[in-house]
Amino acid sequence: MFRSLASSLLTLVAILLFSFMLLFLWSGSDGIQFTRNSFEGDRSTQGLLAEQRRVDEATRLAKNASNRPEETPQEEPEPVSKGSGSGPAVVVWISIPGFRGDYLEKSETPFLKKLAEDGAATNKMRPSFPCLTYPAHATMATGVTPDKHGIVADRIRTPSGEIVDRPTDSALLLAEPIWTTATRQGVKTLVHDWPLSQNQGGEHKAAHFLDAFDPASTDEVRLNKALEQWRADATAGGEKLRLVMLRLDDILRAGLAHGPRADDTYAAVGATDTALKSFFDTLQAEWATLAPPDANLVIFLTTDHGLAEREKNVNIAHLLGPEMMANADIVAHDAIANLFFKNLPENEGERKIFINKFDNELSKRIYFRPLKKEELPGNWAYQHPERTGDRVLVLKAPYSFADEKADEPVYEASAGPGLFGAYGYPVEESGRMSGQIFLAGYPNSPAGAFASEVGQLSFHATVCKLLGIEPAPGAATETLPLK
After folding, report:
1. In tens digits, what is the pLDDT along the chain, a chain of 483 residues?
2. Distance CA 326, CA 336 (A)
3. Which residues, 6+ apart, have CB-to-CB distance to 24 below 8 Å?
4. Does one domain contain both 194 and 281?
5. Nearest 5°: phi and psi at 34?
6. Which of residues 397, 418, 439 is at a domain's end?
7. Are residue 229 and residue 147 in the same domain, yes or no?
8. Number of H helices, E strands in the chain
9. At 104, which CATH number?
10. Which residues contact 75 (CB under 8 A, 6 or more apart)?
11. Containing structural domain, residue 100
12. Are 124 and 254 within one domain?
């Protein structure tokens, strides 16, 4: 009986399950939901599949790499500026007028300080007399003194009586400058803005020079202009430039306008440092195009003089008065004036009496030291037969000659032309005239150890030796210390 009942129940369950399956197949899965409960650490199926694909790819790459021969690591390409330096020297000579000896200590100049570390430098460059822009640049370029090159001041009187202010005519330079010396010996040269390099003529003029000097150009503009000319020359083919000469002006301009120790002047020093770094970085990046193969880049930075503070202006014509000026032509600039006698008595005795009286009156003026041409110190080398005055008036610091006229012949700097820096004083009278110079090379520095003091007469011969040429006839042959 029990066996029969159990058999019936099993049959009933089977029928019910079969009926449920028929119902499911008939109505589909609508309304039936399945849920999944997540647990901490569970990961999605998509994530697991993605991870598995990454593992498979890594395994495939490793397998392929094991079947390839081992590769030699590739070295970084050598910068084009880092040649052997075994080729010819290319000298970039840049003058920075008014660069006082203490500017490196008081300004932000990382490029110039690095240049000093890589080569040699001194802040005791002693200018030749007079410490003026045009005479100093003529001395540096020619290797001779003003009595020979004839540029005795920034404002000179020619034998015809013409007064030339800041001359640009190269014919006024009476000694051979290095751009001519180099060109004559086959060294291709570019010279921009160097005093008296304009309007060149003759057989041995530089390959590139300017017709005029633009006082408004910034240092950055001057550097870029020279770089553009250099690129154009290199693109044109033929011999590459080996001497490039430039003059910058922003530091001097700031020192004159604000005074040599003003914040604006220190800022100008920093700005020129930045402009120089950009210029030389570009040179090195383009060196393979601009220079001969394996050329050594030599950087030579010099100055004409330092600067002193200007406190008083002196109008010399007002100071001497109309009676004395009737017998004198005076060509004055900054701390130097050349006085030429005129309208003197024809009788020798009377002329001597007049000149003695004139000299006596000059001696009463306390602001300057009057010197007869024949009594000028021999180390000044200033006795040019035609361009040096019969009397040379050397102002004492901090006075400066000015053309502007005020109520009094001697007046405050603020009432004059608006300049607060001055120059022209002999170095022995104003140590502030000393300046900075730098010499370095890349990849090979040619500089030896500088002496405690250096002079400008050696610069011409130094650059000639770096270029492998002979100095100009009559030029000094002593060079800066070189390796």
Report:
1. 444 444 554 454 455 454 444 443 444 434 433 333 333 333 343 443 344 444 444 444 344 444 444 444 434 333 444 567 889 999 999 999 999 999 998 999 999 999 999 999 999 999 999 999 999 999 999 999 999 999 999 999 988 889 999 998 888 999 999 999 999 999 999 999 999 999 899 999 999 999 999 999 999 999 999 999 999 999 999 999 999 999 999 999 999 999 999 999 999 999 999 999 999 999 999 999 999 999 999 999 999 999 999 999 999 999 999 999 999 999 999 999 999 999 999 999 999 999 999 999 999 999 999 999 999 999 999 999 999 999 999 999 899 999 999 999 999 999 889 999 999 999 988 889 999 999 999 999 999 999 878 999 999 999 999 999 999 999 999 999 999
2. 20
3. none
4. yes
5. -115, 140
6. 418
7. yes
8. 14, 19
9. 3.40.720.10
10. none
11. 89-309+427-467
12. yes
Alpha-helix residue ranges (DSSP H) falling in 291-339: 316-325
Strand partners, 455: 126
The number of folded domains in the chain is: 2
Contact 244, 91 (CB under 8 A): yes
Token couple for 400? 């400066």
Cβ-based burial of 217 (10 A; exposed 0-12, middle 13-18, buried ≥19): middle
For 416, phi then psi, to 5°, come to: -100, -135
Measured CA to CA, the distance from residue 341 to residue 325 in angstroms comes to 9
C-alpha separations of 27 from 15, 23, 24, 86 in Å: 19, 6, 5, 95
Residues 174 and 253 in one domain: yes
> What's the longest Cα–Cα distance across the chain?
178
CATH of the domain at 333: 3.30.1360.180
CB atoms within 10 A of CB 445: 19
- Full-prediction pTM beyond 0.85? no
Q: Identify the DSSP state of 172.
A: G
Torsions phi, psi for 450 (to 5 deg)? -70, 150
CA distances from 21 to 10, 12, 25 (A): 17, 15, 6
324 and 367, same domain (yes or no): yes
